[in-house]
């Protein structure tokens, strides 16, 4: 009997090809009437490949055994509901650490030196009217990392190569790490020139970077979010960026992405990025391969490679 699996959105091409080679793949997002399709066929589905599975979809897939998620963050999967139904959940950690860390440093330099704005300055013919101005550099500054995990550690290595001092905040002190630990996020923000957010989304971190933290970072402080939009109080951030209460922000993720509040577009002290942290060919190929390897392990009765549930 072929193993039947479900996709609910388009996946990276090499991942889709590998899935199609091994399984009978159904694409719910291509069905004219997804609800009717689920009613008629849901019971045959043994695996979900992709991201974002809520309890109501699990209910319509009574024989679902595993959710293999494309991405390391799984805040968009109802893991509690999965556990209750004995459904395994896997993600794609580590293979994307370098790509996300590279983009983070890229965003930091872009913001510090206003690289996108400089490009526009030249293209719009403004250079002939005078030089653009002076900005700041990363060298010698302190970067506070919120979430010194797999990706956070790669950011720390690269920040040190930029001659920055690294400090961090998380729920636990990591004794093997040489960097200064803050158990209080506001205090770390007060002592940092840059705050880089790279902790998971979800209930535990909802708006953890609140107005108090943003004000502690202050008028010269620079914020980078490569985690999830939900970690920041977005309206407070916007207001502080507009009135000079916060120095600048480089944002790869947003609360209601791909919708981005229009007010950001008018700000010169902001660099915007469309959730591109892992968006390189080699990393997306590796993420897809890990997703497929988890499914293969599951159906071979072997231990999962990267299980979260
Ligand atoms: P990870 O290895 O699990 O690291 C997460 C870190 O966050 C840990 O150091 C953890 O330390 C800290 N943390 C967790 N909960 C916290 C809380 N409530 N308060 C403070 N710190 C907390 O995760 P990762 O692989 O580095 O990935 C991190 C996140 O990056 C993902 O979950 C995903 O949302 C995001 N991401 C974004 C992109 C993108 O394209 N922009 C790409 C990949 C990943 P403690 O346990 O000590 O608290
Ligand atoms: C996305 C990410 O998952 O891994 C994560 O947590 O945020 C990204 O890698 C990826 O863009 C696929 O949607």
Explain this structure.
The protein has 309 residues and is an alpha/beta fold. It folds into two domains: 4-93 and 281-299, NAD(P)-binding Rossmann-like Domain (Rossmann fold, 3-Layer(aba) Sandwich), CATH 3.40.50; 97-272, NAD(P)-binding Rossmann-like Domain (Rossmann fold, 3-Layer(aba) Sandwich), CATH 3.40.50. Helices cover 35% and strands 15% of the residues. The protein contains eleven helices and twelve strands. It has helices at 13-22, 34-41, 55-59, 79-84, 97-113, 115-123, 150-161, 185-190, 211-217, 234-243, 281-299, and strands spanning 4-7, 24-27, 47-50, 66-69, 88-90, 142-146, 165-169, 180-182, 194-197, 222-225, 248-251, 270-272. Strands 8-7-6-9-10-11-12 form a seven-stranded parallel beta sheet. The chain has a five-stranded parallel beta sheet with strand order 2-1-3-4-5. Strand 3, helix 3 (55-59) and strand 4 (66-69) form a beta-alpha-beta unit. Helix 1 (13-22) runs parallel beside helix 11 (281-299) and helix 5 (97-113) packs across helix 7. The longest helix is centred in the C-terminal third of the chain and has 19 residues, at 281-299. The protein is elongated. The protein starts with a strand and ends in a 10-residue tail after the last helix.
